[in-house]
Amino acid sequence: MVSNQSWDWDIGHKEIDISDWSQRFEWVEELYASPDGESVAAIVHVDEAFNVCINGTLWSEAPADKIWHLRFTPDNRPYALISDGGQWTVAISGETWSEGYDYAWNPMASADGTHLAVAVQQAGRYAMAVDGKAWESDFSDIGYFALSPSGRSTAAAVQVRSVDSGQVHAFQEGTFSVAVDGKSWDPMFVNVWHVAFSPDERHVAAEVRLNLYDYTIAVDGQLWPQVYSTVWAPCFHPTSGAVVAPVRNKGEWVMAQDGRTIWPQPFVQLWRQQFNADGSRLAAIVAPKYGRWTVAVDGAPWPLTFGTMVTDLTFSPDGQRVAALAKEGAKWHVVVDGRAWQHAFEMAWRPVFSPDGNAVAAKVEIDGRYTVAVNDRLWSTACDMVWEPCFSSDDTRLLIRSLDKGIYRRSVISVNKIAE
Amino acid sequence: MAETDKDSTKSEELDEGIEVGVRRLTPERIQTVINSVLGAETGARFKAYIQTCIHCGLCSDACHFYLSNDKDPRFSPVGKVKQTIWPMIQAKGRVDAAFIRRAAQIAHTECNLCKRCVQYCPFGIDIAYMMSMVRRIIHKLGVTPLYLQDTAHSHAATMNQMWVKGDEWIDTLQWQEDEAREEIPELRIPLEKEGADIMYSVIAPEPKFQAQLIYQAAVIMHTAGVNWTMPASMGWDNSDMAMFSGDNEIMGRVKRAHFETAARLKVKKIVMGECGHAFRSVYDMGNRWLGWAMPPIPIVHAIEFYHDLLKSGRIRIARKYDKPVTLHDPCNVVRGGGLHEMARYVVSQICEQLVEMHPNREHNYCCAAGGGVINCGPPYKNKRMAGNRVKAEQLFDAKSRGAETLIAPCHNCHSGLHDIVHHYEIGLDIKFFGDIIYECMEKPENP
Questions:
Q1: What does the mean pLDDT of chain B come to?
Q2: CATH number at residue B94
Q3: Is residue B219 within 8 Å of B185, Cβ to Cβ?
Q4: Touching check for A12 and chain B: CB below 8 Å?
Q5: What is the ipTM of this complex?
């Protein structure tokens, strides 16, 4: 995680006029703001080539044939996928990796922003590359990419043994495995999905399908002793090394840990489980009955349920509170500890807790305009665009990045200005 | 119109998927699987159907296979039930491998799950559901036809039905964007645009060998000023042949990827291309298996999307398509989605003349390709052709009344009707709505 203490938290605004970008360039793609709010950038098309404009300055004097997937790392460096002369690579802050590939996609930045990984294809073979260095092994296919918390390791589901289309029985013998830093597990499976690193980066878990009917969880290539009619993505306990995953048998979902049921109450659906920071609590999105959705914490569902969907489950940093987004009909709600805000939105983004957990903020859309809500109270300003808000480390201030009428604005306001 | 082989079952080639599966069966496994599926995966609905059916046979005249095979009762809907699920129940699962082979052929290649027969049953019994349960048993026994099983494997491995790899998908979109910029220089296919109004999703044959459909959709989106995006991750394919292979677990997995991709992109709607079975999978089957009573992100089929764009004036037609057209009503979006009048509105706005085929709307004959039947591949093409002579006659009648172009707003229908048109030498040009809209719409001037 990147500390935001060094950011400018003085109350006030900084503005960048981007209103002339549309005249300067043939077209301007989506705008992205850096996490600290100091930079706003977009892929632009100029003189029949692509470039990136950051705070009004072009990224490179040498434009590219194609640029896409512009984003910022958590430590505020812009990066994008870039192609020139038929080769793809990654550019960070305008500097491209020296390595190029026939294709590169799915970039992932480490939590501290110091490492960047991508999936790469070279001569029809697949691997991952970290900071430009590709795995020494390559594979027939690749998917379900994972980057370790530090960004030093990568893993993915890989097809180790290629089979031609139509060789269904050869396929059913198992062609997929998990590769960690390019080295694949020995056992092969019919399918592998959703690869996850342990917090200490020493272990990797994944969903595996043993044949057409039996699914389980594999950890470092070792299978849980039980099989299930299907499973969903596993995750690691933050300290113990235990692995938990939703598993399905006889039409019902329960939560299992290392192959043992830990939530005895079955659900119609159960997924997206996550531990709080110290691992003392486990929450998940559940359907306690058909067509009704909510959050369960330690196996107990909130009484309040929603008919359409629940997403974006989030623990507070202290692990005591839980928030999520819930949809009823066409409206989105922010729900905190089982209670829905009174405001409903056309769209809402993942809730953000203050460090002490007392405040919850979210980017929301109302009447086609964007704003920020804190503890069910709306910021007085609606904009053409806002980005997701961020709390200062002392909980008192909120960084809001917004765009309105061609002006990008970095605002630091008192949390109380909205919340009270 | 050309004649065809009368006995459609004689020309079948051996299907490795079925034959290898049958060789591995044991009586114990057959019995266990049948009783397990019927006992644990069916309920009041299934029981009501079984106990209510009085074997009247009124469903027979609804079925294109029955009508096209000279009213051979083996092809009647109730006849298919009588050859599959009833004996399984009556024998308490004690049926032999030869029975299972035949059940696999009937459920997978002699029924399109088109649900026309539901409308003819005095009790509303859904025989397509009964055939789906047979397919579930066939899947559990490992006897699914080869081509369909391969497609289900593709879904499981790649979340799309044609083994399209992660880079190939994005590269194809970028290629189509480049191509379209030759026509409209500032056109974009926006990838991963979070907060767009619409996620546009397609089925894998489009990037695999019909990339011009993506091009056309991009031109329509651009011209209409739609705030749209396409995902650069798995979850872009809305199709689901696992739904038809009886692999419900993979069906649910594929549908979850689709809806969660839309939720991740924070879009308000998913607009899907002209595909019928995919609509069924996102609007009815897959979402409900996952516990969503309705799609969590609203699904808008291309027919409804084009209807809305034309009605609101967001796209305008420069000149109407001047050849007389006839319109095929796809089962899944008409009987399953009620889009038939919207489709006719679209035709009225983009074409000079519609020659209705009869019967039409919710009573239209199936294309004989849907329900995963065409996905069972070449071994069954002759059976599929012989089994839809009635459709050929329907098309020929429309042609005899002036139709020159057949609009089929569904991928499976499109492919199946293409086969029928060529097999019976009917001589109709087949198009999607998107083909005609792209051809006839007003487009931005190229400076």
A1: 96
A2: 1.10.1060
A3: no
A4: no
A5: 0.98
